[in-house]
């Protein structure tokens, strides 16, 4: 609709976060079978910023990458990537975006942080389950290779997403206050 500011925000934020997911996928620390990337940081941050609408860029990212745009880790694409060991993590992005987004709609910092932790855990859980299914490994072995190496990085990403989102929120509040002050002086 013409003049729907929130819809416009959702559209441009979706484009920005899809670009950030792609950039985050290109920053890789190679590990077997799943590389470490900054995608999860941007997924968590997306949930903080876009709230429940964060699922939109997460879904579109997967759809666009599956259709052939080189958006996945190390500029790969196609449905084969989703069938490989990283596929579970990518589907976990959608769940995480929803969990974090819904949690960040609340005012409580505890709920926001819990949402970030649960969102990160959802990505890891989906990844571990998919590794177990796709490789035939036991859940215990899949945990060792698909979760344990990422714990410290995930904690750092959770903290970074929270701190960045709080900074964005305070900057938005300052801008809103400046706008309302300027409107009164016109």
Description:
The chain is mainly alpha-helical. It has a single domain, classed as Arp2/3 complex 21 kDa subunit ARPC3 (Orthogonal Bundle). Helices cover 74% and strands 2% of the residues. It has eight helices and two strands; from the N terminus they run αββααααααα. The chain has a two-stranded antiparallel ribbon with strand order 1-2. Strand 1 and strand 2 form a beta hairpin. The longest helix is centred in the last third of the chain and has 35 residues. The chain is globular, with a radius of gyration of 18 Å. The two termini are 28 Å apart. The mean pLDDT is 92.
What distinguishing features does this structure have?
186 residues, mainly alpha, Arp2/3 complex 21 kDa subunit ARPC3
